[in-house]
Amino acid sequence: MDTFLQQLAATSAVEWIGMATGIAGVWLSIKEKILAWPFFIICYGCYIYISYQFGLPALMGMNVVFIGLSLYGWAKWSNPKGSVPAVQVSRTPRLHWPLVAGFICVGTVGVGWLLTHYDGATQPYFDAFATCCGFTAQWMLGRKYIETWLFWIISDIIYLVIFALGGFWPTVLLFAVFTVLAIKGWSDWKQQSVLTDSSH
Questions:
Q1: What string of DSSP letters covers 57-68?
Q2: In Å, how far are 4, 13, 52, 163, 165 from 10, measured between CA atoms?
Q3: What is the pTM of this model?
Q4: How far is the C-alpha of 98 from the C-alpha of 184, rounded, in Å?
Q5: Residue 145 pairs with which residues in a beta bridge?
């Protein structure tokens, strides 16, 4: 408990901003609010710095790419005419699954191997796998595929364990919150999809 309180007291302003904007972004994305995307961009900018400090280069690279994917999601969710949402919540098309599986497998092996040669990298293959799941989740979020939340859950739990092993307890708490929110997102979007299908 003392360690947690000491780390909490030592938490930098960048970490607090990253935590707050990350939670806000996830909550707003569950509600399908386009304001989620600028919050995500701020959060990912903070975590580029944080992941560098923690010696997680794949997580750092993931957040760099996430900024680009957030701009993509922002554009996909935008609707200049302001009538119906530009993108509707739906299941991931079957044809996408082989590509998703291939990307995660190849990406995990390739990025993991690269990270084993990076001085200071911790848990390289777990870091790589969580990173690839995160890329998949972020891309799916931009298209409002329900399964985005499953990949967020996997990625968040892995990073929760990695940070717990490193003793970074405030960040462990944050990823626990992210996991709970992702479970809520999965439940809410599934229910919304059922309602949408029944109305057609």
A1: HHHHHHHHHHHH
A2: 10, 9, 17, 16, 19
A3: 0.86
A4: 26
A5: 90
- At position 147, the amino acid (one-letter code) is E
CA atoms within 13 A on the CB side of 196: 13
Instruction: Assess if residue 54 is contained within a domain.
Output: yes
Residue 169 lies in a domain: yes
- E-assigned strand segments in the chain: none
Q: How many domains are contained in the chain? A: 1
Residue 133 within any structural domain of the chain: yes
Question: What's residue 148's pLDDT?
Answer: 97
Residue with tokens 């998703």: 100
Provide the sign of the torsion angle of the four alpha carbons 45, 51, 53, 57, taken in this order: negative
Amino acid occupying residue 55: G
Retrieve residue 132's tokens: 């690839």
- Could you report the per-residue pLDDT of 26-83, keeping only the tens digit for each? 999 999 999 999 999 999 999 898 888 777 776 788 789 999 999 999 998 987 655 5
